[in-house]
Each structure stands twice: as C-alpha cells, then as structure tokens.
Design a protein that fits this description.
The chain is built from 13 helices and eleven strands. By secondary structure, the chain is of the alpha/beta class. The chain has one domain: Aldolase class I (TIM Barrel, Alpha-Beta Barrel), CATH 3.20.20. α2 packs parallel to α5 and α9 crosses α13.
Length: 346
C-alpha cells in the first residue's frame, strides 16, 4: 500500500460537506492519498462519488465509513432539545426530529465490496473480523481510526491493516469507539508512542498537523504518514461553506463539544457552541438530526454562529491553496525539517 504513495500525506475524510470527489482526486493526483467521506450520505450517492473520483484520477484513494455503533450510549435529551427552541425561532427553521440511524452501514459496505477502493477506513468503531476479511478479499486495505491503545488492540485483533491514530488536537468528531464522559483525550505524539508499545501495525497520524514540520515530526515518531484534515478545508476543491472558510482564517480557540451532534467533536468556539455545550448530552446521532436543519439554513445565510465550525487546534496555520500546491509546499517544508534533523548535532 505505502509504495503507492509518493509522499507521506493522507487527506482526512472530512464528512459533512468539505469532502468532494474533486478534492480526493486532486490530492491523489499530487501523490498523496485522497479520501471520500460517506457520512450522512446515501449508499447511492457514495457510489456516484467513487465513480466521479475515478473519472478524474487513476491514482489510489480511500473511502471512509462511520462504523456501526457497538452500543447505544444515548442519554436523555428531551430537555436539551427543548432548550434549542430559541435557535429555531431565531432562524425561522424548525428543528429536526431526533432519531437513530446506522448511516446506511450495510449498504455502504456493499458499495465498498463492489467498488474496491484502495483503502476502506472506519471511524466511530471497528468492523467485525468477517467484514474486514471480506473487504481485504476484494483488494482493499482496511484502516481503523483509534484514540486509545485499547481501541488499537481491538482493531488489530479484528484484522485491520493499519491504524489511524487520532490525537486530541484533531478537528471534527472524536473517532472513539464509544463516547463517554470519562473519555481520555490523548495528544498525538503520546498516542503514537502508546499505540506503538502495544500494537505492531502501520500508523497514520492525525491531529493538529498543518505544516511540513508537523508531517516530519510524526514520521520521525514512527508514523507511516500524516493525515491532514483542517489543512485541506480552504482548498478550492473542498466543499467547505463560506462562513466556515472565514472562521478557519481566524485565531479563535477550539474546544470539544457535543452541542451540534450529541458526540464529542472539536470546533472553533462560536455562540452556539459556547451557549449549549455545558448541557449537551451524549446522544448521537439523535442531536445531529435535531440541529441539522438549522445548521443548513445558517450555512446558506452565512451565519457562522449557528453552525459547527469543525477545526483542529492549529487551524490558524491554514493556507488557501489548490490541493496540489499545498501538498508541494508541505513536502518542501517536511524535507527541510528532515534535513535539519539529520544535520543536527545532539
């Protein structure tokens, strides 16, 4: 798998809008590994996206799927939903109905089996050993996102080919198998070392990487490649909304919140996040469906205070570049950092 990449860069999947076939194809064409996100899409739309990438590149790319929830961890959420009534009134858009969904998991697995992308990756949990074996049987490499050594061991035992180790610095949803109030959020460099001590699998490092020096750092720490998400969100090929793009150019702080979806995720702190985070329950995807109509309206009307502004902790270091140019700049920086390290006298 790794010999297919010219550079040790993976584009994180970026569910919820920023992911596009154009971005995945551009990243892969530049010698890195582009990714399609399937979250919140139908299996039919996912298959169309895969076909669209293949029309634009013959290079390998990956497809990410939300794993089937292992258990239901939802807390009572009625009071929280009632407290969002003012948000609906402010926007003039009704809240959605809370409901459970497995995000069309079985149908998406079928799409992966028929289309056989170079990489099939999973977040929010680990597929069964049978599911992993079936995907490997059609020629896909299977990656699982992990946030703790225990999750890494579980993914290894299920047959994963590689692990995406997601540090606490990462933007967007935490990839933890189960979201709990006692969840431990481990920084990326510490997580790489802890997982390496327990599991002998290739690692892809994710979380707060925005520069070539950051790429060099995680490769030096033992990762095969660096996964960058926020860094690609200002590329013209990305589907990032305008209010989100503008927020990414600020130096505003980020924090973890469940206020938009009911699952812990890191975003730039805005009014909605500040006001509703303290009482937000663990109730994913129910809260996602409740807030989705209001957030969609806010994106269309440029209201950055009423949308989830997912971003990693180093988002202020982002650049507005076509994907190929960004990858070229990052690799120039990464090679300079590598040379400086090799030439250092310790």
């Amino acid at each position: 798998m790794w010999e297919l990449l010219d550079v040790p860069i993976v584009q994180a999947p970026l569910s919820g809008g920023p992911s596009t076939p154009a971005l995945a194809a551009a990243v892969s064409e530049a010698g890195a590994l582009g990714f399609l996100a399937t979250g919140y899409k139908t299996a039919q739309d996912v298959e169309a996206d895969i076909a669209a990438v293949r029309e634009q590149t013959q290079r390998p790319f990956g497809v990410n799927v939300f794993a089937r929830p292992a258990t239901t961890t939802a807390e009572p959420y009625e009071d929280f939903v009632a407290g969002l009534a003012a948000e609906a009134d402010r926007s003039g858009v009704a809240l959605g109905e809370p409901r459970f969904s497995d995000d069309d998991y079985d149908a998406k697995l079928d799409v992966l089996s028929r289309t056989a992308p170079a990489v099939a990756s999973f977040t929010f949990g680990c597929p069964t050993a049978w599911e992993i074996a079936a995907l490997k049987g059609v020629g896909s490499n299977v990656w699982v996102t992990v946030t703790t050594p225990a999750e890494a061991i579980a993914a290894r035992d299920a047959g994963a080919d590689a692990l995406v180790v997601q540090g606490a610095e990462a933007g967007g949803h935490r990839g933890a198998f189960i979201d709990t109030h006692e969840r431990e959020d481990i920084g990326l460099l510490a997580l790489i070392a802890l997982v390496q001590a327990q599991v002998d699998l290739p690692l892809v490092a994710a979380g707060g990487i925005m520069t070539g020096a950051g790429i060099a750092a995680v490769v030096a720490a033992g990762a095969k490649a660096a996964a960058l998400g926020t860094a690609f969100m200002r590329c013209p090929e990305a589907g990032t909304s305008e209010p989100h793009r503008k927020a990414l150019q600020t130096g505003h702080r980020t924090d973890l919140t469940r206020a938009f979806t009911g699952r812990a995720a890191r975003g730039i702190v805005n009014r909605w996040q500040a006001e509703h985070s303290p009482q937000a329950p663990i109730a994913y995807p129910q809260i996602h469906y409740v807030t989705a109509p209001v957030r969609a309206h806010a994106r269309q009307h440029g209201d950055a205070d009423s949308i989830n502004l997912w971003a990693g902790q180093a988002h202020a270091l982002g650049r507005e570049r076509p994907a190929a140019e960004l990858i070229d700049e990052l690799m120039t920086e990464a090679r300079a950092a590598r040379d400086q390290l090799n030439g250092g006298a310790w």
